[in-house]
Design brief:
heterodimer; A: 83 residues; alpha+beta; globular; B: 156 residues; five-stranded antiparallel beta sheet; 9 strands; 33% strand
């Protein structure tokens, strides 16, 4: 199994839950969903937020099936409240 | 050829105070018979009670791009002259302007519609979050809406 490195960004409530604005992680090559599964194990409270959040890979919204190749910036976007 | 939007480097997300006069000047146009301006301001009440301030956070690069796409869509859909959108981020006090949308057009109905369209889209498509500073102490993220992509929104 090959591993990939991605840069994570945590916005809004995701920043409070993880206690950081972002981090770099190495994971077994897989989908965005698998990455989120891993993060859920690491951060209590992320499971609830995940249901209402979307993920952007390199600033494009993607589904959880999206396959990561490594080198991407993955942002966790809770419900937005601009304006 | 008519130049519709201002320079591409125009700041759509800013840490500075929003100047209403700068916003209005940027949409002035000799062919315009109307300018409609929407301002979003920080109010003193929210779902969690009395509010004493607000802190806005953005995914800067993506927000800049989404705001730019919303502006371009307005220019495509309505016969408007100029559009200026600017969203402020960072810590704000009550009454501060958090967002401005200004549209100039030959006739008022297009400017009203386009301006309304702009602010409604901003609330759904732009990665920006806000946290209330509560008068009772503490902070609370404002419950928002699931973000939708500009492409999805266009399809509806």
């Amino acid at each position: 199994m090959s591993s990939v490195k991605v840069k994570l960004l945590y916005f809004g409530a995701a920043g409070d839950i993880t206690g950081k604005r972002g981090e770099r992680v190495t994971l077994v090559k897989g989908s965005v969903g698998q990455l989120l599964d891993m993060l859920e194990g690491r951060y209590a409270g992320l499971e609830d937020l995940r249901r209402s959040s979307r993920v952007a890979v390199d600033q494009e919204l993607v589904d959880e099936e999206f396959e990561l190749n490594g080198g991407e910036t993955v942002a966790l976007l809770p419900p937005v409240a601009g304006g | 050829m008519r130049v519709r939007s201002k320079k591409a480097s125009e700041e759509l997300v800013t840490k500075s105070r929003i100047s209403v006069s700068e916003v209005l000047e940027s949409v002035e146009d000799q062919g315009a018979g109307a300018i409609v301006l929407f301002l979003g301001t920080v109010r003193n009440s929210g779902a969690s009670g009395e509010v004493s301030g607000m802190t806005y956070e953005a995914y800067g690069e993506m927000a800049q791009r989404e705001l730019s796409e919303i502006r371009d869509e307005i220019l495509e859909r309505w016969p408007v002259k100029k559009v200026r959108i600017v969203h402020r981020v960072g810590k704000m006090q009550l009454k501060d302007i958090s967002v401005a949308v200004a549209v100039s057009s030959p006739h008022r109905s297009d400017a009203f519609e386009a301006c309304r369209f702009g602010i409604e889209r901003i609330k759904k498509e732009v990665p920006i979050w806000k946290k209330e500073t509560l008068a009772s102490g503490g902070e609370a993220w404002v419950e928002g809406e699931e973000i939708v992509s500009t492409a999805d929104a266009r399809a509806h």
